[in-house]
Structure formats: structure tokens, C-alpha cells
Amino acid sequence: MKNIALKIMYDGTNYHGWQFQKNGITVQERIEAVLSGLLEEKISVCGCSRTDAGVHALEFVLNFKSETTIPLERLPYAINTHLGDDDISVIAAREVSDDFNARFSAKGKCYEYRIWNSNIQNPFEAKYSWHVPYKLDVEEMKKAAEKFCGTHDFSAFMAAGGSQKTTVRTVHFCRVLWDEKEPHKIKIEIGANAFLYNMVRIIAGTLVEVGTGRKTAEEIEKIISDCDRRGAGQTAPPEGLFLKEVFYDQNVLEW
Predict the structure, then answer these.
(1) 202, 238: one domain
(2) Is 253 a member of any domain?
(3) Stated pTM of the model
């Protein structure tokens, strides 16, 4: 019995998130169905994160146990052939130690949030960014983003329904990226040891409020210390959110 890790990417537009749901198809459901058919055994997978409906992944790691004899270098091609769609792609496969768990072995994650900042919507960006039609002050957003770094209680940035044992998280970096050559595109990158429910989307919504002048960069520290969800900004829509990278110890998982 092998413990196999897969690195995948997916467009979450047509899915109700990663984890099994009663009310719609999920990425986990699609992956398990394809693996079970291809490998001719019942496969259950463990994912590194529980992305919400409409959220995308540039890198997502999962693992499963199997007795397959298919060479691992050929496994991604076999899975992609059986998937037969444009929403999900398997990038790589590796055999890992028996105790590897895609979720609990992870040391941290990086998310990217994309904003299309123009008074005119771009139809080619609509499924993959938040259309904000009013001009944003990117420099103020950059100053505010720095305030999120460090170890804090992020209760103010957790949506109702979160069930984490602790709301303390360590944010390693939070930055706003903008290039004058592509003036309508704004990206927010956040890396942390772990995230609360909707934490990235609420931080993105708060930074947009800073960009519009409804909040200031100096207010961020107080919003964090107050631990009151009402003080933070709105929850940004899911289509702009991408899981960008999952971090593991190099000796645990190396692609």
C-alpha cells in the first residue's frame, strides 16, 4: 500500500468548493470518482485545505492510499485523461511516507487575491477577480497590508461558522502588488501558518475599504486588537481568491 501525494490545480467556478457537499459537486468528489475508477479500488483522499465554492487553486496538495502499480511519473497523465475536462489538472505525483497528511503536515499556505480595478468590467477577468469600479489608493493599501504581519488574534477576520480551536495565527507576509504597466490589476498576497474561515477574503475586503478611504492604514492595528468582526471590512467575493502555494518541510515533500 503506497501513500501517494498529488499536486493539482483547479478552476473552482463550477464547484461547491473542495470538500464533499450535499448540495453540489465538489473537486474532492470529482477526484475520488476518477481515482476509484482508474485504479479499480475505493479511494478516499485528504486535501490540504477546504476551499469554498468558487475559489480556485494554483497549487493544491492531496494524498491517498493505493495499491496501484501505475508508475507515478505516468499517473498525472492517466488521471487527466480520465478527468476529461478543463477545470482540474494533476501536475505531479510523488510517493510519500506513511505518516504524511496533506492537511496536517503542511507548515503554511500562501493565498492570492485578485482585483480588477476599473470602471469597466473585463469579461475575461470576471470569473477570476473582484471587479471594484472605483479608484483605489494602492499606496495606502500597501501600508495597511503591513499591519497584518506577525502573530495576532484574528477573530475580527473570521466569518461566522468558523470552528477553529484558536483564532491566533501568524501572518508571515501580507503585500499588495501593483504594476503601472497593468494599472487595472491589483493582487494581494498573504502567507501564514494557517488561516481562519474566510480570513483572506475579509482582509481583502478591509484593504479595499482602505483603498477607498473608508478606513485608514492606522486603523488596522485597532481592528485586530478589538477582535470584533464588525470593525473589519466586507467579505470579498470568492472568485478573486486563489490558493497559490502550500508549504511543507523539504524532507517531507519535494516535487
Answers:
(1) yes
(2) no
(3) 0.95
Q: Which residues are catalytic?
A: 52
Does residue 85 register a pLDDT over 90? no
Across the range 127-155, mean pLDDT stands at 97
Are 101 and 12 within one domain?
Answer: yes
Domain boundary among 73, 105, 137: 105
- The mean pLDDT of 38-65, rounded to a whole number, is 96
What's 218's domain CATH number?
Answer: 3.30.70.660
Residues 117 and 215 placed together within one structural domain of the fold = yes
HEC profile of the chain: CEEEEEEEEECCCCCCCCCCCCCCCCHHHHHHHHHHHHHCCCCCCEECCCCCCCCEEEEEEEEEEECCCCCCCCHHHHHHHHHCCCCEEEEEEEEECCCCCCCCCCCEEEEEEEEEECCCCCCCCCCCCEEECCCCCHHHHHHHHHCCCEEEECHHHCCCCCCCCCCEEEEEEEEEEECCCCCCEEEEEEEECCCCCCHHHHHHHHHHHHHHCCCCHHHHHHHHHHCCHHHCCCCCCHHHEEEEEEECCCCCCCC
- Give residue 146's domain range: 108-245
